[in-house]
Design brief:
Number of domains: 1
Structural class: mainly alpha
Order of helices and strands: HH
Bound molecules: zinc ion
Helix content: 55-70%
Radius of gyration: 16 Å
Number of strands: 0
Length: 83
């Protein structure tokens, strides 16, 4: 996928899914001691963050785009239109 806005939405979904999985696994398996599935679910948001670091980039200049918004139409670095 080349569209950085779609990649941003996908990474937000991965992070949210990992947080939900971590919460559900903590509720189901308890936190003392932490279940291995909970540890695996806790690593999913970091994988989403790493995915966003490598894929949410401007196709023209290659700079990373901000992650805090859902959709950006222009690159804040070079001003090129992203759509
Ligand atoms: Zn750019």
């Amino acid at each position: 996928m080349k569209d950085p806005n779609l990649n941003r939405l996908l990474s937000h979904g991965i992070i949210l899914l990992g947080c939900i999985l971590f919460g559900v696994s903590c509720i189901c398996f308890g936190t003392d001691p932490l279940h291995p599935l909970s540890l695996l679910a806790g690593a999913v948001p970091f994988a989403g963050l790493a995915f966003s670091f490598f894929t949410v980039r401007c196709p023209c200049c290659g700079h990373t785009l901000p992650l805090r918004c859902l959709w950006t139409s222009y690159c804040p670095h070079c001003g090129e239109k992203l759509d």
